[in-house]
Amino acid sequence: MTEAEKNAILTIGLMAAFADATKDERERAQLKSIADALSSASSVDLTAIYLDVMLKRRSLDDAVKALQSAESRQLAFEMAVCVCDADGLQNEAERKFLAELRSKLNLDAAGAQAYTQAADAVATVPIDEPPPGPVVAAQPVKAAELDKMILNYAILNGALELLPQSLATMAIIPLQMKLVYRIGKAHGYELDRSHIKELLAALGVGLTSQYVEEVARKVIGGLLRKVAGGLGGALGRQATSSAMAFASTYALGQIAKQYYGGGRTLSMEKMKASFQALLGQAQSLRGRYAGEIEQKARTIDVSQVASLIKAQ
Q1: What's the CA gap between 218 and 9, in Å, rounded?
Q2: What sign has the CA pseudo-torsion 168, 20, 33, 193?
């Protein structure tokens, strides 16, 4: 992709993020923080793109015109769909935005609908369904078993972030939500999506903003594309984003274990401080499991990603 195409795809991604006018201030602040951080670490000025979108200085028509290749137009649509689905199924405003985008991109309606349905399937995987297998009687919570489960989820999410497909990145969020649900249930708490979303938002892990950050890194690095015949060189070049997916999942699992294991008495201030400390620890821990993460990435069939989430 050219720099103009990267800028256009990121512009469309942010427009999709703000198509839902109900985004709260925490999510908006997180998106701005991500834009600033990525701008300082790359040649793409995502902060300027963010401001152009917020101040409506660039239209959807302008962004679409910059997409010269069929691949870049398809990627722009895929990213927009996943951004709109990141925090659940699309609302009316998001559906209207995506319909307008598809029309302006001149994409095949059937193909666009098929991709939207695949993203919807990932977004709506129930978090309260137990993994397949024999029903096991309730047992006292064992910290070591929870630690093993948290690590397995972190490895899986690190592996998903090595893959170049947008649906692979989208799967990270429902897996994190399912991890929190299972930890809460292990301590006797029945959680729903709203509770888990609120917990993640309070920790600074916005659903839409997390997806935008992960995919923006792939766009900036030229890695968000379909790869025939394997992962190619993506494994090495995606190490940083994979480490972030691993670390955020690991830290989230550990903080959930502390919170629910302590009877939900931990204050939000202490949770935030502990979460940040755990992020740092997990980023250094990721290197120990790099081989397992890469091996896991080679076994994932992205076309079956919804089934993969259900199986965890």
Answers
A1: 11
A2: negative
Cα distance between residue 86 and residue 120, in whole Å: 9
Q: Nearest-CA neighbor of 289 among 173, 156, 161?
A: 156
How far is the C-alpha of 161 from the C-alpha of 166, rounded, in Å?
9
Helices (H), 86-124: 92-105, 109-123
State the Cα–Cα distance between residues 258 and 312, nearest whole angstrom: 21
How far is residue 83's CA from residue 262's CA, in Å, rounded to a whole number? 34
Render 189-214 in DSSP notation, one character per residue: ----HHHHHHHHHHTT--HHHHHHHH
Place of tokens 């249930």: 185
Q: Which helix (H) or strand (E) holds 27?
A: helix 25-40
Total domains in the fold of the chain: 2
Q: Are residues 116 and 152 in the same domain?
A: no
Instruction: Let me know whether 161 and 193 are in one domain.
Output: yes
Q: Which residue matches tokens 């740092």? A: 280
**Contact predicate 11/49, CB 8 Å:** yes
130 in any annotated domain: no
**107, 202: one domain:** no
Helices (H) then strands (E): counts for the chain: 17, 0
CA pair distance 110, 107, nearest whole angstrom:
9
**Considering only CA atoms, which of 64, 67, 44, 47 is closest in space to residue 55?**
47
Each residue's pLDDT expressed in tens, for the chain with a length of 312 residues: 788 999 999 999 999 999 987 767 778 888 999 899 888 878 889 999 999 999 999 999 999 999 999 989 999 999 999 999 998 889 999 999 999 999 999 999 999 999 999 999 999 999 987 777 665 555 667 889 999 999 999 999 999 988 888 889 899 999 999 999 999 999 999 999 999 998 998 888 888 888 898 888 888 877 655 443 445 545 545 667 788 899 999 999 999 999 999 999 988 899 999 999 999 899 888 889 999 999 999 999 988 999 999 999
Count CB neighbours of 268 within 10 A: 11
Query: What phi, psi does 189 have (nearest 5°)?
Result: -110, 130
